[in-house]
Amino acid sequence: MPALIVGTQLLGEPRYPSLKGIMAARSKEVVTRSLADLGLDAADIGGAAARTKVTGQQKPPARGATQVVRGTAEERQQRIQQQRSILDSISEEASSLQRGLGTRDRARLNDYLENIREIERRIQQVERRNSVQVTTPNAPLGVPDSFDEHVELMFDLAAAAWQADVTRVFTFMMSRELSQRTYPKIGVTEQHHSVSHHQNNAEKMAKMVVVNTYYITFFAKFLEKLKAAEDGGGSILDHSLLVYGAGMGDSNSHASDPLPIVMVGGGVGTGHRHLKVETRTPVGCLWSTVAARFGAPKMPTFGDGEGAIDGLF
């Protein structure tokens, strides 16, 4: 029977086991069976005994951004070391572009290239530190030990991507639920999750204020970077819409209503407002409203939200 087998790009996406699956696998017995155990002979399996034959293979047309990675792990690592700088690989193109720009645009390009060089330098410093330190087996390569450094680096990468129009949408979860992180740098040595269940204790509530202020300070620095980056007749911040918030309005009782959300940027329209929506308005209504703002087809529902929020834009 003839068959056409088609592979999608998702075949190249890694699938990671869940913690539940890992723990279950540890208790499972690994059983090894021979061909004889299965009632098979070597002549009955493999390509020679196959009842199907591959008549041909056809790859999709190569795209400009596609790169086929070949070679052993050592060869790929060596290639990464040789091509580690983005700027070194485009130095000739950048120089040619600069010669054709006016004074103001040349200055903007120089600022952007200097930002990329600084990000590369910081990533390389992290790699050098990690190469001489003992890390846990599953620790991602290149993640800074310092939480501050990690968050600031992620925001800087996002700003650089927006400035170069590599992407126009990004999400960044700065902390996870049930976080056990402590913040001795700002004087909070108790775990984040424990502090969040403050039980209306004044001392714990004060610590929660310190932690929330600490997080939003990173966001404020990111906004300043976007505000300083020229984009057309204004800045990247002028032409953006950013949303900052969390999944709970009251972490002590796990209440999601009222849910404070900050919207920043020129995409907001009329700013400097405090908009109070009806009680128990699902956050899905907000995302439907934002989607419509950017030209998406009208969505009657999004999640558990129905309709849009009037007066937002």
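[next item in queue]
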Amino acid sequence: MQQSSRDNDQRQRLCRDLAKTIAQVAVIAMTFVVIFVFILDDGQWNGNDSADCTATCENSHVCDYNMEERPAIQQPVNAWTSLAYIFVGLWPINHYRVDMSTFIFMLAMFYLGIGGFLYHASLTSVWQTIDEAAMFGALTALIFHGIFALTSIPWSWLALPWMGLVIVFSVLEQEMNEAGLDSKTLSTIIVFIIIAEHLVLLAVGIRKILLRPSTSTKRLKKARQSLKLVLVALLPGVIFGIGLLIREKDSDDEWCTPDSFWQGHAAWHVLTAFAILMIWRFFDRHQMFAMLADTRDYIDEGSDKYTQDEEDHDNAVPEHINFCDSSSVNESTA
């Protein structure tokens, strides 16, 4: 009965935080609607250098138009799906906790979401550069989060170096674009650093499981927990890979219908947003070991990674919250 009550509280908290995050993203979206639909006129981006608008499929025919003839939002599907990054940035603060790590993650994802929206709305070279630099900002935020997980260096020491790197990458991206250089090599290096951190944390997690004292009857449970950790570690990579494949097919015009609601680059936005969230969650040293196995086992064994107070804090739900009321579930299990 106690476990059923805890599950009910967790469901209510999940639904409450989900509703809160969706409402916040909706407010941001409505702000963009007011600005770009009711205030700005066609030709708003006149006077700006055009980006390579054939790099994505959606409305690629607008490349044939002069800037003064183009609409305020030139690639609406790609633009609006960029808000997935903002949703992902808000989720840790709403659902997990408010601290420096979640705040930095939110800043990085807002930078990426707003930069992506304005790039696909304007298709100008300046916003294309900002969009690409914002991706570096999000990836470096993951790198610093991994450093935090591996070393416990306080985020108060990591925040300024991260901001400095974001500025450096923004300037470097601008210089590389002006010189006609490709930044893929730089992004590949950053991705490999994230993969290396991922593998180190995976090894640490499996070692933590295997070194836990247990009897022979718990060996199968250890194997299941290790497999679960491996799957959790691999899932964001699989999602990212699928998104990359779809994006490349979209760029190569193999899966391209310019005026369709389905756009491969939009799918890339959604898939990579949630892959980034999964990686952030995996790196999250406050929750990682609770994710590996049954939390109660760690509490019973006196784990210093996850205490009863932390679990009570995570499961706390204000009494006035009524989202996703599952009282029927409790009644059926009583």
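[queue empty]
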